[in-house]
Amino acid sequence: MVLKIINATEVKIGTNIIVDGISCTVKKIDISKTGKHGSSKVRIEATGIINGQKKIFVAPGHERLEVPIVNKRKGQVLTIGEKISLMDLESFETLEVACPEEIKSELEENSNVEYWDVEGEKIIKRKL
């Protein structure tokens, strides 16, 4: 569910956008000037929020880009397996959440973490 749409020239480093159906964070942006007969071009390098996949694309400056909704929430680790079992600290619901390996090694049961809900997909971002 996308609530915000921005022009390609309004994108800044750190902005979240949707590229090919994947939620990404912008890492680098280059904007060319308008020419005599053409519009400005924007070259965007972005990294996927969930999978870390790198995306590079060029778009006209007037192209509209979608901005995903990212909810940053806190949870408590219940069990550690292939997926981490979390209890949300506000709603007390239990969730099965993916976790990167570098963060998984730091976690222990009953520790608090910050997890992101990005367009319905959840991922643990850091230990609190």
Supply the key terms.
mainly beta; 128 residues; 3% helix; 5-stranded antiparallel sheet; OB fold (Dihydrolipoamide Acetyltransferase, E2P); SH3 type barrels
Task: Report on the architecture of this protein.
The protein has one helix at residues 101-104, and strands at 4-7, 16-19, 22-31, 41-48, 54-60, 64-67, 70-80, 84-88, 94-97, 112-118, 121-127. Helix content is 3%, strand content 55%. A hairpin with a 5-residue loop joins strand 8 and strand 9 (94-97). The longest helix has 4 residues, at 101-104. It has 1 helix and 11 strands. The chain is mainly β.
Q: What is the terminal separation in angstroms?
A: 28 Å
Beta strand % = over 45%
What is the element string, with H for helices and E for strands? EEEEEEEEEHEE
User: What's the structural domain tally?
Assistant: 2
- Adjacency order of strands in the biggest sheet: 9-8-7-10-11
CATH class type of the largest domain = Mainly Beta
Q: Please describe the biggest sheet, giving its number of strands, its sense, and whether it closes into a barrel.
A: 5 strands, antiparallel
What is the count of DSSP helices, taking H or I runs of 4+ residues?
Answer: 1
What Rg, in angstroms, do the CA atoms define?
18 Å
Helix content: under 10%
User: CATH topology of the largest domain, what is it called?
Assistant: SH3 type barrels
Regions with little confidence, pLDDT below 50 for 5+ residues:
none
The appropriate CATH architecture of the largest domain is: Roll
